[in-house]
Amino acid sequence: MLKKLMTLAAGAAVLSLASGCQTGSEEARDVPDEGQKFVVGVSIPAADHGWTAGVKWWAEEASKNYPNIEFIIEDAIGPDEQITDLENLRSENVDALVILATESAPLTPIAKQLHEAGILIVNVDRGFTEPAADVFIEGDNSAFGRKSAEYMVEKLGGSGKIVVLEGIPSTVNTARVDAAAKVFAQYPGIEIVAQDSGQWNREESEAVMQNILVGNPEIDAIWASDDDMALGVENALRAAGRLDGVWILGGAGMKDIVKRVMDGDPLYPADITYPPSMIAVGIHEAASILRAGRDNALKYMPKHMVLDVDLITPENAADYYFEDSIY
Length: 327
What we know:
Layout: H1 2-19, E1 38-45, H2 50-63, E2 69-76, H3 79-91, E3 96-99, H4 104-116, E4 120-124, E5 135-139, H5 141-155, E6 160-166, H6 171-185, E7 190-197, H7 202-215, E8 221-223, H8 227-240, E9 247-249, H9 255-262, E10 271-272, H10 278-292, H11 294-300, E11 304-307, E12 311-312
Parallel strand pairs: 1-2, 1-3, 3-4, 4-5, 5-11, 6-7, 6-8, 8-9
Antiparallel strand pairs: 10-12
Helix pairs in contact: 1-10, 1-11, 2-10, 3-4, 5-6, 7-8, 10-11
């Protein structure tokens, strides 16, 4: 999956660069001088769990590929802090912003303001609720929800009591949950005994699952939609002595979970890919657009990129296990 992401980034970069090199054309005047310097702000959530820690690591790694571009990377605990970060980045006269929102709705107004002020906006993962970006790059969250739910239904034989754990309010969460719900609704034997939000956080998910366990003596599986939340669910199950006869389906391809899938751990029979390296794709896109000439490059490149997701099972888990990865 990482190779797919990097290939996509490279291909789009080539397209942008090629489109900006048409000598003798009207568009060619949009190409900046080779010596022109750019400033790019990268605004991401704080590394409060594994996936966002991976986002920060990939952002820092990707920025090293462009020594002639000044990158300012800011991470925020929540929407209020991220809005302040973006206002501060505007004062730094950035040419572009790569934004992975802490939450979709609160970040939309400031993103619109910055875009209207002429700053190139590349939005990654959690989309805005209104058009506010030049380019939007996301994983296929509808496929994430659909594929994971289909796997759960098949493994349960079309019948069972399940728990659904949602993440942070965002376009990502909505797409995953809605797609999964459509699948579950097709099977009368699938009963959702509880549904709550674990905020894509291990500790929050553990606490939520503890409460759910008290009122539900029979649970066959938990659709956790995120690997950090899955680990929180595991902690709650272990503390309650409820590990037997139940299993968890998380998502995002955390290496620790992938290893357990690979080893045949019955608690984690499968997982879904959703690599944090997509932030690197956003950084590569911003850099290539600026270097090719923004107005010209945006005429030729796609405005919306959807990155595929895959079901990880014991049969293919080795292909998705990267021992040296931070996530």
